[in-house]
User: What shape does this take?
Amino acid sequence: MDEQTVFSMPRIGDPAPEFKAVTTQGNINFPSDYKGSWAILFSHPADFTPVCTSEFMAFASLEKQFNEANCKLVGLSVDGLYSHIAWLRTIKEKIEYKGMKDIEVNFPLIEDIKMDVARKYGMIQPNEDTTKAVRAVFYVDPKGIIRTIIYYPLSLGRNFDELYRVLIALQTADAFNIATPADWRPGDDVIVPTAGSCGTAKERMDSKDPDVHCLDWFFCLKKLDKETVLKKVLKK
Assistant: This one.
């Protein structure tokens, strides 16, 4: 396989590359099986490693929360199916961490021994490791389009508050045609109109909407309460 293929990766706004795979929850066809819902496809370097174990426990503990936001989780590493099964059984039966114990991982974990999927998604970063996937996170929307990509090195565990915050922010931006400022969380002011629009500067500055206030012609905020956001993006 040539070097260009090793380094190739999809970009934000691209259709998620298609693949079929064997997983701990049966065969999947990605992203077709997930159309109509958001999906987070994430990779980890190896089974039976401590950082990955802590992450899988965190994801499994939060799976219901992600599902309620119309999002399904799909994991991947370059290990085989039987290794996956043995590792997940060990997590459930033996590992207790930060109050999490008896954790059962119910979302699919992809077998990728030949690294076909990992290479297709640019998860193999040769300067980091040639035989392990880095900690990549791909957010795929209900239409099968990649909306966010986050990469972490092998040594750095992910921040799961941030992973969930990104999901809610993406859905909020879509639902209300706005952008979210730094450190935004539901209930905080949002940016209107979406970032980068310049044709309505005067209209924004002169807005009579009591919920809109402008810091300058290019930076206008609007109140959007937490209940409105969550009612729109969470399943009831």
Observations:
- The CA atoms of residues 77 and 227 lie 38 Å apart.
- The helical segments are 3-7, 50-68, 81-94, 116-120, 160-176, 201-205, 226-233.
